[in-house]
Design goal:
about 140 residues, Aminopeptidase, 4 strands
Length: about 140
Protein backbone atom coordinates (compact mmCIF):
# COMPACT_ATOMS: atom_id res chain seq x y z
CA UNK A 1 0.00 0.00 0.00
CA UNK A 2 1.26 3.44 -0.92
CA UNK A 3 1.97 6.13 1.74
CA UNK A 4 -0.85 8.31 0.34
CA UNK A 5 -3.25 5.38 0.78
CA UNK A 6 -2.30 5.17 4.45
CA UNK A 7 -2.71 8.93 4.90
CA UNK A 8 -6.08 8.82 3.12
CA UNK A 9 -7.37 5.99 5.29
CA UNK A 10 -6.21 7.79 8.43
CA UNK A 11 -8.12 10.88 7.28
CA UNK A 12 -11.23 8.77 6.54
CA UNK A 13 -10.99 7.27 10.03
CA UNK A 14 -11.07 10.77 11.54
CA UNK A 15 -14.57 11.13 10.07
CA UNK A 16 -15.84 7.73 11.23
CA UNK A 17 -16.70 8.47 14.82
CA UNK A 18 -13.45 7.30 16.42
CA UNK A 19 -14.46 3.64 16.30
CA UNK A 20 -11.22 2.26 14.84
CA UNK A 21 -7.53 3.05 14.50
CA UNK A 22 -5.51 2.25 11.39
CA UNK A 23 -4.04 -0.69 13.34
CA UNK A 24 -7.58 -1.96 14.03
CA UNK A 25 -8.37 -1.79 10.32
CA UNK A 26 -5.15 -3.62 9.43
CA UNK A 27 -5.97 -6.31 12.00
CA UNK A 28 -9.45 -6.79 10.52
CA UNK A 29 -7.96 -7.13 7.04
CA UNK A 30 -5.35 -9.63 8.27
CA UNK A 31 -8.03 -11.66 10.08
CA UNK A 32 -10.20 -11.73 6.95
CA UNK A 33 -12.95 -9.59 8.50
CA UNK A 34 -12.35 -6.77 5.98
CA UNK A 35 -10.98 -6.51 2.47
CA UNK A 36 -8.40 -4.01 1.18
CA UNK A 37 -8.59 -2.76 -2.41
CA UNK A 38 -5.89 -0.45 -3.75
CA UNK A 39 -4.98 1.04 -7.10
CA UNK A 40 -2.64 3.84 -8.09
CA UNK A 41 -4.76 6.71 -6.72
CA UNK A 42 -7.56 4.96 -4.81
CA UNK A 43 -7.97 2.74 -1.79
CA UNK A 44 -11.08 1.08 -0.35
CA UNK A 45 -11.82 -1.08 2.66
CA UNK A 46 -14.92 -3.27 2.53
CA UNK A 47 -16.64 -5.74 4.79
CA UNK A 48 -19.01 -8.59 4.05
CA UNK A 49 -22.08 -8.29 6.28
CA UNK A 50 -24.19 -11.41 6.75
CA UNK A 51 -27.82 -10.68 7.57
CA UNK A 52 -30.65 -13.21 7.97
CA UNK A 53 -31.96 -12.38 4.50
CA UNK A 54 -28.90 -11.50 2.43
CA UNK A 55 -25.18 -11.02 2.15
CA UNK A 56 -24.13 -7.36 1.84
CA UNK A 57 -20.91 -5.83 0.55
CA UNK A 58 -20.34 -2.79 2.76
CA UNK A 59 -17.93 -0.06 1.68
CA UNK A 60 -16.41 1.06 4.97
CA UNK A 61 -13.50 3.36 4.10
CA UNK A 62 -12.41 5.11 0.92
CA UNK A 63 -9.68 7.56 -0.05
CA UNK A 64 -8.01 8.89 -3.16
CA UNK A 65 -8.90 10.56 -6.43
CA UNK A 66 -12.71 10.47 -6.64
CA UNK A 67 -12.93 9.23 -10.24
CA UNK A 68 -10.56 6.38 -9.49
CA UNK A 69 -12.34 5.57 -6.22
CA UNK A 70 -15.63 5.27 -8.13
CA UNK A 71 -14.01 3.11 -10.83
CA UNK A 72 -12.50 0.85 -8.16
CA UNK A 73 -15.89 0.68 -6.42
CA UNK A 74 -17.44 -0.78 -9.57
CA UNK A 75 -14.71 -3.44 -9.80
CA UNK A 76 -15.24 -4.37 -6.15
CA UNK A 77 -19.02 -4.60 -6.68
CA UNK A 78 -18.42 -7.19 -9.42
CA UNK A 79 -16.24 -9.15 -6.97
CA UNK A 80 -18.98 -8.90 -4.33
CA UNK A 81 -21.59 -10.21 -6.74
CA UNK A 82 -19.38 -13.18 -7.66
CA UNK A 83 -18.98 -13.87 -3.93
CA UNK A 84 -22.66 -14.05 -3.10
CA UNK A 85 -23.42 -10.46 -2.15
CA UNK A 86 -26.85 -9.29 -3.24
CA UNK A 87 -26.51 -5.68 -2.16
CA UNK A 88 -23.88 -3.01 -1.58
CA UNK A 89 -23.99 -0.30 1.08
CA UNK A 90 -21.66 2.45 2.17
CA UNK A 91 -21.29 4.87 5.01
CA UNK A 92 -19.64 8.21 4.40
CA UNK A 93 -19.85 11.93 4.65
CA UNK A 94 -22.59 13.88 2.87
CA UNK A 95 -20.27 14.68 -0.04
CA UNK A 96 -20.61 11.07 -1.20
CA UNK A 97 -24.20 11.75 -2.23
CA UNK A 98 -23.02 14.39 -4.68
CA UNK A 99 -20.02 12.36 -5.85
CA UNK A 100 -22.17 9.29 -6.57
CA UNK A 101 -25.19 11.14 -8.00
CA UNK A 102 -24.51 9.91 -11.55
CA UNK A 103 -24.17 6.26 -10.46
CA UNK A 104 -26.67 3.66 -9.27
CA UNK A 105 -26.10 4.58 -5.59
CA UNK A 106 -29.07 6.15 -3.81
CA UNK A 107 -29.42 7.61 -0.31
CA UNK A 108 -31.42 5.28 1.94
CA UNK A 109 -30.91 6.11 5.60
CA UNK A 110 -29.47 8.78 7.82
CA UNK A 111 -26.77 7.73 10.28
CA UNK A 112 -26.46 10.01 13.27
CA UNK A 113 -24.01 9.82 16.16
CA UNK A 114 -23.80 11.11 19.68
CA UNK A 115 -21.30 10.64 22.50
CA UNK A 116 -22.91 9.15 25.60
CA UNK A 117 -19.92 8.92 27.93
CA UNK A 118 -17.92 11.53 29.78
CA UNK A 119 -14.85 10.81 27.62
CA UNK A 120 -13.33 8.40 30.14
CA UNK A 121 -15.60 5.45 29.39
CA UNK A 122 -18.02 6.39 32.17
CA UNK A 123 -21.70 6.98 31.64
CA UNK A 124 -22.42 10.69 31.47
CA UNK A 125 -25.30 10.53 33.95
CA UNK A 126 -26.70 8.09 36.48
CA UNK A 127 -29.76 6.19 35.38
CA UNK A 128 -32.31 3.75 36.62
CA UNK A 129 -33.71 1.04 34.36
CA UNK A 130 -37.45 1.72 34.39
CA UNK A 131 -38.18 -1.97 33.75
CA UNK A 132 -36.26 -3.27 36.76
CA UNK A 133 -35.60 -0.31 39.05
CA UNK A 134 -31.90 -1.23 38.92
CA UNK A 135 -29.11 1.24 38.29
CA UNK A 136 -27.02 -1.58 36.78
CA UNK A 137 -27.34 -1.90 33.00
CA UNK A 138 -28.75 -5.21 31.86
CA UNK A 139 -29.82 -6.34 35.35
CA UNK A 140 -33.27 -7.89 35.32
Amino acid sequence: MRPEHIAGLEKALLHSGGTHSLRDVADQITQGDAQLWAEESAVLVTQIVETPKMRILHFWLAAGEMDEVITLTEKVIKWGSKNGCERATLTGRKGWERALASTDWEPELVLMGRNITDGQGQEATDHTDIRTGSSEPGVR
